[in-house]
Design goal:
globular; about 325 residues; three-stranded mixed β-sheet; single chain; alpha/beta; seven-stranded parallel β-sheet
Length: about 325
């Protein structure tokens, strides 16, 4: 029996994760099997997908038609409103961050698609939890709109798996660091902005205080983990809400010190804003041993390797010596 070709749809394909994940999926499956989608016009320099659909992911009828037209089997549903932006538009954030996920789960329940990836976040954690090595099965207590929507989404994923056998897989991403696409309104965005400002201006003012540690991950490792999870045998997975992903854990001061190893004249200042309160509600480090056991999670980058790679690539991108 011939194996069915995987046909992939990525929502939010022009975002921070979407651009890099789309291009990696094209390398694996071929451009003709990858459909990117987003609200903006197709930017060929950002995505190598064979097809692009400009669509609002909350337009269920349109999404359903696209899935039928291309014979989609797997959906990477990345479209969402991030933590800082969600606080400013709570009702819209709830609608965007939750409703399309439910519709994709319904389509999988009907047999229209076979597999779904949906990202959760460390924002599901909150008050009353230990700050360090937060485990897989702790009680979730989010304090932000973003975290509340992600917690609800996790429970819906678990529900659709338990009730209908829907193969929906999820990772609780920490802060993601990437040089290819700017971040989009998250609380951990300082860890991206700091590199851009270091290369362009030699100085940065952080909106997070110098001693606030948060879990972070270099994008290369985030993409690797996502693909590891999606290629794992279904029977090896024991978590059907969302897997912890620990990555790295560091403070703005520690990250600045790494940059100063490469750029000794780099200066940093601190002016915490409303995002500091969000950061204070999140863990400092995460226990991801269940993901390591179930599907072989592993990392290639520490803080030093990540910082060197970010600065090297941004100097080329921004044409700075």
């Amino acid at each position: 029996m011939e194996l069915q070709t995987e046909k992939i749809l990525i929502t939010g394909a022009l975002g921070q994760i979407g651009t890099e994940l789309t291009n990696r999926l094209v390398e694996i499956h071929g451009a003709e099997n990858v459909v990117a989608s987003g609200l903006d016009r197709w930017q060929k320099e950002l995505t190598t997908a064979g097809y692009y659909e400009r669509m609002d992911v909350t337009n269920t009828q349109l999404v359903r038609q696209v899935i039928k037209d291309y014979g989609i089997t797997t959906v990477y549903h990345l479209a969402s409103l991030l933590s800082g932006t969600s606080e400013k538009q709570p009702l819209f954030a709830w609608k965007l961050n939750l409703e399309p996920l439910l519709h994709f789960c319904e389509m999988a329940k009907e047999g229209l698609i076979q597999k779904i990836f949906w990202p959760s976040s460390i924002a599901v954690f909150g008050k009353g939890l230990p700050k360090n090595d937060v485990g897989q099965d702790v009680v979730l207590n989010p304090t932000t709109v973003y975290g509340i929507s992600k917690m609800a989404g996790e429970k819906w994923c678990e529900y659709y798996y338990d009730k209908f056998g829907v193969d929906v897989r999820s990772i609780r991403y920490p802060g993601l660091i990437s040089w290819k696409t700017p971040a989009g309104g998250g609380t951990t965005d300082y860890a991206v902005e700091i590199f851009y400002e270091a290369v362009e201006n030699g100085a940065y003012t952080s909106f997070i205080s110098e001693d606030t540690a948060m879990p972070m991950l270099y994008m290369n490792d985030a993409i690797k983990a996502t693909l590891q999870l999606m290629s794992a045998p279904k029977e090896s997975l024991t978590v059907h809400s969302s897997y912890n992903l620990g990555g790295l854990s560091f403070t703005p001061a520690e990250l600045a010190a790494e940059i100063q190893k490469e750029m000794p004249d780099f200066k940093i200042a601190y002016e915490p804003d409303f995002r500091q309160q969000i950061a204070d509600s999140w863990p400092s480090s995460i226990d991801d041993s269940v993901a390591k056991k179930d599907w072989g999670l592993s990392y290639d980058y520490g803080i030093t390797e990540m910082s060197k790679d970010m600065l090297k690539n941004l100097k080329t991108k921004l044409q700075k010596n």
